[in-house]
Amino acid sequence: MEIAARAGVNRGSVLFAIKSKENLLRTLVSYVLESTFSSSTLLVGETDNPVLSYAVESALQLYMAESREEVRELAAVAYTLPTPSDLIYRKTAKWLSELFKPYNPDWEERDFYEREIASGSIMRAQLDEILVLYRELTEDEQGQLDLSRVLTLQEALDGVNAPAPAAGRADRRGNRDPGSRRS
Fold first, then answer.
1. How many angstroms separate the CA atoms of 84 and 22, rounded?
2. Residue 177's pLDDT band (cuts 50, 70, 90)
3. At a CB cut-off of 8 Å and minimum separation 6, what does 9 contact?
4. Quick one: CA dihedral 76, 77, 82, 88, positive or negative?
5. Residue 95: beta bridge partners?
6. Cβ distance 93 to 113 under 8 Å?
7. N or C: which end of the chain has fewer CB within 10 A?
8. Whether the Cβ atoms of residue 84 and residue 63 lie closer than 8 Å to each other
9. What pTM value is reported for the model?
10. Among residues 146, 156, 136, which one has the least CA distance to residue 65?
11. Residues facing residue 48 across a β-bridge
């Protein structure tokens, strides 16, 4: 087992610690979800727009799934195994509840959970379709596709993070902020 060899421990120790491949995948999924939730918060910053936070988090997950075939396959497997898929749904439902509860005050966390199950099914179907289409491409085409996705995501993130012109200052085209005073 490669994990045991790299860690310098025997195989039994690794199997005892992780219990199963599904548990290892669950641990990885938990780490990835926490990372994307916190990264989207860092990228967006303080905002009153939960849709922006949700869009950035979704874009990060899709970017990771699009970045390498192995990652896409792991994501597809995670959505099909009971333990990781339940973790995905529950953590995402909790996060969505935190974001959108003000807009749906009568909803309980299970309502967000049910909607996450529906959107998770859509995501799983999209990942499966992406995998089918991706496998049909040549290696050169795959490289071009990956590069275009990276550039598109980077442009979108740059647009989100672009600072607004300060009051009284002109933007790049020379337009002044309407509320500013001319000196």
1. 7
2. very low
3. none
4. negative
5. none
6. yes
7. C
8. no
9. 0.57
10. 146
11. none
Structure tokens at 168: 């009284």
| Six token digits for residue 41 | 């918060």
3-state secondary structure 107-175: CCHHHHHHHHHHHHHHHHHHHHHHHHHHHHCCHHHHHHHHHHHHHHHHHHHHHHHCCCCCCCCECCCCC
**Distance between CA atoms of 29 and 88, rounded to whole angstroms?**
7
What three-state secondary structure class fits 176? strand
103 and 45 in contact (C-beta within 8 Å)?
no
DSSP state of 79: H
Q: Choose among 137, 132, 112, 133: nearest CA to 54.
A: 112
Calpha distance 125→76 (Å, rounded): 9
- 67-78, pLDDT tens digit by residue? 778 888 888 888
Report, as an integer, the average pLDDT of 143-168. Answer: 53
Question: Which pLDDT tens digit goes with each residue over 21-55?
Answer: 888 888 888 888 888 888 888 888 877 888 888 88
First to last CA, the chain: 71
The pLDDT assigned to 175 comes to 43
Centroid of chain to Cα 164: 26
